[in-house]
Amino acid sequence: MGRKRTPGLRKRGQYWHIEKQIYGRRLNESTRTGSLEEAEQILAKRIEDIRHAVIFGTRPKYSFTDGATLYLLQFEESLSYVDKALQIKILRPFLQSLTLDRIHMGVLQPFISERRKEGRKARTINYALQTVRHMLNLAASEWVDDHGLTWLAHAPKIKLLPQHDARKPQPLTWEEQERLFGHLPDYLRYMALFAVNSGCRATEICELRWAWEIETPGLRFQSVFLIPSNIICKGKKQSIVKNGEDRVVVLNSVTKDIIEKMRGIHPEYVFSCRGKPITGGLTNTSWYQARQNAELPDARFHDLKHTFGRRLRSAGVDHEVIRDLLGHKSNNITSHYSKAELSHLEEMAERIVKRDSASSDLLILKHMTRTKSGKNSSGTNFVARSSTRKDEHKNVTGKNSSGTNFVAQSATRRDGHKEVPGNTPAVSNVIPFKTRLSG
To answer: Alpha-carbon distance 47 to 67, whole Å?
Structure first.
């Protein structure tokens, strides 16, 4: 005859479950074990923890899984729920065996090392560290047990990694744009051309819908698009605009032409492919193949937004107007514009359509790797600097392919590197803005 089980344990399926009232607190939880002996040990430990909490004010120990479960429940309706759930999934293999009071920077080092081995940049690793830090801060401040005690007495300091490896914006020159767009399929070329003339992000373009178009009689291009900050997708909120505010997209002649070409193709979405909305993102196989063929292996779709902003600045557009056109967060009520303000935004967006419309040529300096001293192709001696330097502005003189002298001012950064003799930085051709780019 087998021994009797401890009262308060019941087997459901393959696991033993605790069903017991202890010091007025009802426990109903799984032990996650099929062994009766292990289940009894777990029950005894839970009873002891609750006894210490009631009599001595000792905090029970909560596992990472307990914290992650409550964390996701708390933010279930949040726009960032999917991102938080992804970070929890990435962290679980490294932290699932730990209690919250044992999590600190030391135990996070194996996670950081593993992610670095996978080639992840500091910014990506920091997303997970921010999630852990937020969870521990809540456990120390907001999450309270039945005895009025917070889950943690205090939260450990979780430091984020310095982002020295962050990729810097790389706006395209007109020549690079033509090369890249020439290798894109039609649907993706239209979307890229819309991006470089509107400053929209990839998500905003993929989700752009006809219902968001607002007629603006009296304005040159007759309509604008008002993108909501978020939408309901499959029963959950999905963020569309990064800054969490509704965004007005003002058209110029290029984007207006694209909108008219897309009209009538899909009943709901402005951009589609083979009759279906584009849900898998824009940096797909076609994009990767096009940038390889264009000899621009590092080009990202988001660089088109930076290109739009850089061209506006080159065309002499005011900083506040650039911010509005790019959809950056500001103190303005961005969904409320007068007719005169919208007309002014249209006029500024139109400045970048033609190459000769800018008040000055757009010159983009791109530093190559540091090399030894020498002469350039014309035989002129020069001194080149490494790609990271002190914050100062230096003039770079030379000749372009047509033999015209030019002087370019290069912005540099701090790190104490000295001048080194070498080849001049690769400078894009100084292309006069003469002809309108066509798809």
So the answer is: 20
